[in-house]
Design goal:
It is a single chain. The chain has helices at residues 11-14, 16-31, 83-90, 97-102, 118-130, 136-143, 148-156, 159-173, 182-196, 202-210, 213-216, 222-233, 240-247, 323-329, 331-336, 340-355, 359-362, 364-376, 382-389, 392-395, 418-428, 444-447, 452-459, 475-482, 500-514, 542-556, 563-578, 583-595; strands spanning 253-260, 265-273, 292-293, 299-300, 315-317. It is mainly alpha-helical. The chain is flat and about 95 Å long. It starts with 10 loop residues before the first helix and ends in an 8-residue tail after the last helix.
Length: 603
């Protein structure tokens, strides 16, 4: 008996399930929008469990050896580590990878680093890991009686450390809310937070970043996207063959706009244009090579279209991508992460941030040891931060004399970002100053959206609304942008420079804060510039002048007075006593002198 043949499924019925899924995804996307947490993207799906390591990294308690008693290299002479040097370094039992790599170019060849001065090193750590200078009280609380390992571990566990690194990557990705979707910016910012909390490995982070709309939408062509990825994670532009080959894995991406129904805004976002497929959605054997990289093995990247693609161009909004499709699109980052140079660049970036020079190139053994250290800790980038921050290369003083030209024999000396300078003044003298948010380059766009959700998003950010509600306060951002910080990233990014313009801008602001002209109702509260219990009208004596200067030095510089400063304060106090100065008249010009000094700009 012949069984009846099954009827073929109508073509429209085959699209019902994908259509229902697509509509459900859009509805879920819209209904779940939270202006306090607008992040949407591939970063939201990872790093939501425990950390990849316990955060206890070795090497923070190395005993610093004395140099081997041999003739050290003079000037720029290249250190020559022979058998005695190698034997000496092996015998030290050093656990810190920086020390392991550095020994054969430092102690083992008779060179000594500069001494470690607790106040100087603690201040440097506080700036690099929290984003502002500490007061003397904060230095004491953070560092007094503690090992460098404990100090660094406590700072790495703070939200401030995460925020400093989120701002760093905002500069690298060039966040701009007109070029990029604000949802995607928040998603990448949250992913960076997970990286520096130890919830995402560095290679996983790079893979996600390689196919994140923050990168793909910021650039116009497949070649531009490939080049941007190389700059970010390989530390150099790609060769011609590298650019063209990796670009084949970016050929699916295109740029477009998405109308956000809740924000009432048209957002710039990435779309998928299905390529290397025929009209039926099957892989086209004639064009599939255009979507295949062969430089790192045979790697094909083709997605199959379905009902989610619309229009004559056969495009799909990236917000509808499934988790498995995001993973496929992250192939460029995974390919680069297989290269030794990828891990070396990761290490070199951290070295440059903390030391201010390229120690990995000067002493390749340091780079090699740090790469091995990073891989041994499953790609937890915090392990590299910990190793460098607890090393003598970082902690040693930038002051003092050395008979050699080798840079690693004295400590880092760097210029602060404008936000560090502004936030320090804002914190130490309680000066009324707003803030800016690196995730929102131009808050005016949200204000003009005429949407409750857009206003709620802005109010939950670090921007502060004016009392009239017509705009945000721009006192902080205008000043920071004149000094190279809080960048809008429309054309250029952050910059650091010492020039007539920046110096005059800084002096003008310090003049407003300190009010040395004693203009009534202006400047920081005088109580913050005087020691506790000193009345602004108290008559100045050499003793009181010394107390005032001591208070301000400890507040602004986080250290005790030097003998020279103490003598100078007493001398000026004596002059002021004869002129019958009041405490306020001495404190305000003193504030101007200290806040405009180089010690507030370099550390």
């Amino acid at each position: 008996m012949n069984r009846p043949q099954a009827r073929p499924t109508p073509s429209w019925l085959r699209w019902i399930a994908p259509l229902a899924l697509s509509l459900a995804l859009v509805a879920c996307h819209e209904s779940d929008f939270d202006p306090r947490d607008p992040a949407r993207g591939p970063g939201s799906a990872v790093g939501n469990d425990s950390t990849i390591t316990d955060g206890n990294f070795p090497g923070g308690n190395d005993t610093i050896p004395s140099a081997l008693d041999v003739e050290p290299p003079q000037g720029a002479q290249v250190p020559d580590c022979g058998a005695e040097c190698l034997s000496f370094c092996d015998a030290q039992g050093l656990e810190n990878p920086v020390h392991q790599g550095l020994c054969t170019s430092l102690w083992g060849v008779g060179l000594e680093p500069q001494p470690i001065y607790a106040n100087e090193a603690c201040r440097r750590l506080h700036v690099d890991l929290t984003g502002r200078f500490p007061t003397r009280d904060e230095v004491n609380r953070l560092c007094a009686g503690k090992s460098w390992d404990d100090i660094v571990n406590s700072l790495l566990a703070t939200d401030a450390f995460v925020e400093v690194n989120q701002r760093y990557w905002a500069d690298r990705f060039l966040y701009n809310t007109r070029a990029l979707s604000i949802e995607r910016i928040y998603d990448m910012d949250a992913l960076v937070g997970k990286l520096y909390r130890g919830q995402v490995a560095y290679d996983h982070f790079a893979a996600i970043a390689s196919a994140h709309p923050v990168l793909t939408r910021r650039h116009d062509t497949a070649g531009d996207r490939a080049e941007a990825l190389f700059h970010l994670f390989m530390g150099r532009p790609p060769l011609g063959s590298e650019r063209s080959d990796l670009a084949r894995l970016y050929t699916l991406w295109t740029n477009g706009y998405y109308d956000h129904p809740t924000l009432n805004m048209r957002l710039s976002d990435s779309f998928i244009r299905y390529r290397c497929v025929d009209e039926e959605g099957n892989i086209d054997p004639e064009s599939r090579g255009q979507c295949t990289s062969i430089l790192y093995g045979y790697n094909e990247l083709i997605l199959t279209p379905d009902i989610r693609s619309v229009g004559e161009d056969n495009q799909m909004w990236s917000g509808l991508l499934r988790a498995d499709e995001w993973e496929k699109l992250q192939m460029p980052g995974r390919l680069l992460a297989r290269q030794q140079a990828f891990w070396e660049t990761a290490v070199d970036d951290v070295i440059a941030r903390y030391l201010g020079y390229d120690l990995g190139t000067m002493v390749p053994e340091v780079r090699a040891a740090l790469v091995e250290h990073l891989l041994a800790h499953d790609g937890d980038i915090r392990s590299v931060h910990h190793a460098i921050l607890t090393s003598v290369a970082y902690l040693q003083s930038a002051r003092g004399l050395t008979e050699t030209d080798h840079r690693w024999t004295f400590g880092p000396l760097k210029q602060v970002d404008s936000e560090v300078w502004l936030d320090t003044i804002k914190h130490t003298v309680d000066y009324e100053l707003s803030s800016c948010d690196h995730r929102i380059s131009d808050p005016r766009d949200l204000l003009d959206a005429d949407s409750i959700s857009a206003i709620a998003l802005l109010e939950s950010s670090k921007w502060e609304m004016r009392e009239d509600g017509e705009d945000v306060r721009r006192d902080y951002s205008d000043l920071a942008r004149n000094l190279g910080g809080c960048p809008s990233n429309e054309v250029g990014g952050r910059f650091k420079i010492v020039s007539i313009l920046t110096t005059s801008t800084q002096l003008n602001f310090v003049n407003q804060v300190c009010n040395p002209a004693m203009t009534e109702g202006s400047g920081a509260a005088i109580e913050t510039l005087l020691p506790a219990g000193v009345h602004p009208d108290a008559a100045v004596t050499p003793q009181l002048a010394t107390q005032i200067v001591e208070h301000q030095v400890e507040t602004f510089f986080g250290r005790p007075l030097t003998d020279d400063e103490r003598e100078m304060a007493a001398t000026h106090g004596d002059t002021c006593e004869r002129a019958r100065c009041r405490a306020a008249e001495f404190a305000r010009p003193g504030c101007f002198a200290l806040l405009s000094s180089s010690e507030m700009l370099f550390y």
